[in-house]
Amino acid sequence: MTPFEYVSVLISIVLGLGITQIVSGLADIIHQWKSVKLYWPHLLWILFVFFLHIQEWWVLYDLRGRSTWSLPAFLIIILYPINLFIFARILFPANGNCDGIDFKVFYFENFKKYFTWAVILIALSLADNILFNGYTWEDQPVQIGLLVFLLFLVYRGFQQEWLHKLTVIVLTVLLFASLSLANWTLSN
Prior knowledge:
By secondary structure, the chain is an all-alpha fold. Helices cover 73% and strands 0% of the residues.
């Protein structure tokens, strides 16, 4: 077993647990379908976080060339999947019971958590890019702009619905744009 194979197992498990949270949460919503009031921006956040999990798992393969792993490097790298898992978990009610839930109310009760976790993920991504991928701050203007914007939204706690809708649309469009622009081919 190579060092990459060894460390990628735990990272993959954490990512799999996050995907399980999302799929289980959606199954709970479907199970309680008649008593749930959906809110499309919340559903878009769920889609956004799901694809972040898939993207992270795919990008993990890029680390296969590392022949030496240290515990500090591993801990820095696994922080992103751990925070993705937490993000996936807070997208749904804590007790897993969606019966009678109005997801618009749920969203506005929890949006600061979503934005805070998005900020954490962006900060971890910036650090990862600098430490392991050779990027500089100047190479990451979109991430830095998003970080500042989301920090501002968390700090101000804006309740305007149009701003929340626009934010999740922009985040999702940026994610899918990055997915469509990258070369997503696995090879040896």
